[in-house]
TrEMBL record:
Highest taxon above the source species: Bacteria
SUPFAM superfamilies referenced in this protein's UniProt entry, alphabetically: CheY-like
Protein name: Response regulator
InterPro entries the record matches: CheY-like_superfamily (IPR011006), Cyclic_di-GMP/3'3'-cGAMP_PDE (IPR052020), Sig_transdc_resp-reg_receiver (IPR001789)
Bilayer-spanning residue ranges: none
Entry-linked PROSITE patterns: RESPONSE_REGULATORY
Signal peptide: none
Domain named Response regulatory: residues: 7-122
Pfam family, one: Response_reg
Length: 396
């Protein structure tokens, strides 16, 4: 008979306790035993199928009550059972109030008591999972209705959600993410901050035009406004936090200024940051080699592992020939016949010099040289170049 897919975690340094659980339940369940809180929490972050967590009160590391408190944020559906020799009322209160323990058992436990506790905890977990699934479907339906209504008033902001959702799920599969509900909700709600902005500010921002200090302040506050709107909605508390941090660069740049950096930024927030910027860098037909080159120019803002996985996963759908037509050039390397991939802007004021899609001629290249000498032009410039021209350039 196959074992159930549910996992049981035992966090207790006592080898007799660990062997006892293996002896009692090893044939029925997958038992993972740990001697301190750090190892157990690392396991929980990687294994979202854990159904029941047993812990001793005096767990090495952060202690049993604090361990349960963190475990609840990672796996809220897992039932938590405290095992301890402590008999004080204070210990019981901490286990129940701080760790939100489902059961509290005194050591040593009789096999029958432990078996009964296991069955009760499993039933509690299954009911929690059932209730959460129902609530998630309800919230997802409500969010979809909200998005459908917002699209009527702000179609420009929300038209990307369908494409970005597909991209996010593709990355999630590559990353081995089994639970994607929060990621999908975050993607669907990610344009909410933009929709709250005055349209004139959003238009200037997208065109890379300079903003006043007041306009910049309004722009920077949009993630905080999104969090305020969502944080009190059941099941969206963490989604609101992911969106709040989705403008935070991997290098510590962006909003909020005192926010986390690197891998301390939640993975969902890192994915939203990458795919949102990729959307704005991509043409109407979807991401291409030029779009990824644009992100690579500012690659410190993105998780390097995630950027590479996205490049591999999302470039699969791009025809091979199209991948090879993009060149990054300084003005002196531009050639007649090159076609601009992006708008060419002045260096400081970000004024438009030449628009994307413009084929270059000797005259327009000289115009760019003059602008660069007087106002400065943002470089390198991305252009489409025919393969034959690339060969000529490389052999010249």
């Amino acid at each position: 008979m196959d074992k159930p897919t549910d996992l049981i975690v035992v966090a207790d340094p006592d080898p007799n306790v660990q062997s006892g659980f293996q002896r009692l339940f090893g044939e029925r369940f997958d038992i993972a035993c740990f001697s301190d809180s750090d190892e157990a929490l690392a396991y929980l972050r990687q294994n979202h199928g854990v159904a029941v967590i047993f812990s001793c009160y005096n767990l090495p590391g952060c202690g049993g009550a604090a361990f349960f408190r963190v475990a609840e944020t990672i796996l809220p559906q897992a039932a938590r059972v405290m095992l301890t020799r402590e008999k004080s009322i204070e210990a019981v209160k901490r286990a129940l109030n701080e760790g939100h323990a489902f059961l509290f058992l005194e050591k040593p436990c009789q096999p029958n008591d432990l078996t009964a506790a296991m069955e009760a905890a499993l039933n509690h977990h299954r009911q929690q999972a059932k209730d959460r699934a129902l609530l998630e479907r309800t919230v997802a339906g409500s969010v979809k209705l909200l998005i459908d209504m917002m699209v009527l008033f702000h179609p420009e902001a929300f038209r990307r959600t369908g494409t970005v959702r597909k991209q996010a799920l593709k990355l999630a599969r590559r990353l081995g993410m089994k639970k994607t509900w929060e990621l999908e909700m975050a993607v669907m709600l990610s344009p909410l901050g933009e929709a709250l902005l005055p349209k004139q500010i959003l238009a200037r921002y997208r065109a890379a035009r300079s903003l006043t200090e007041q306009e910049r302040d309004i722009l920077n506050r949009s993630p905080a406004q999104t969090r305020e709107l969502l944080k009190n909605i059941p099941q969206l508390e963490r989604v609101s936090e992911y969106l709040y941090l989705s403008a935070r660069g991997f290098d510590g740049s962006g909003f909020p200024k005192d926010g986390p950096r690197g891998k301390d930024i939640p993975m969902v927030a890192r994915i939203i940051k990458l795919l949102t910027d990729l959307w704005h860098a991509s043409p109407e037909g979807g991401p291409d080699a030029a779009a990824f080159e644009a992100l690579t120019i500012n690659k410190r803002k993105y998780d390097p592992m995630l950027l590479e996985i996205a490049r591999e996963a999302l470039m699969d759908d791009i025809p091979e020939g199209k991948k090879k037509l993009i060149a990054q050039c300084h003005i002196r390397s531009l050639q007649p016949g090159d076609v601009l991939v992006d708008d060419v802007l002045t260096e400081n004021s970000h004024e438009l010099v030449l628009s994307r899609g413009h084929p270059l001629t000797p005259t327009t290249i000289r115009r760019l040289e003059h602008f660069h000498q007087t106002s400065g032009v943002r470089q390198p410039i991305r252009v489409e170049r025919h393969p034959s021209e690339e060969v000529m350039t490389s052999t010249a």
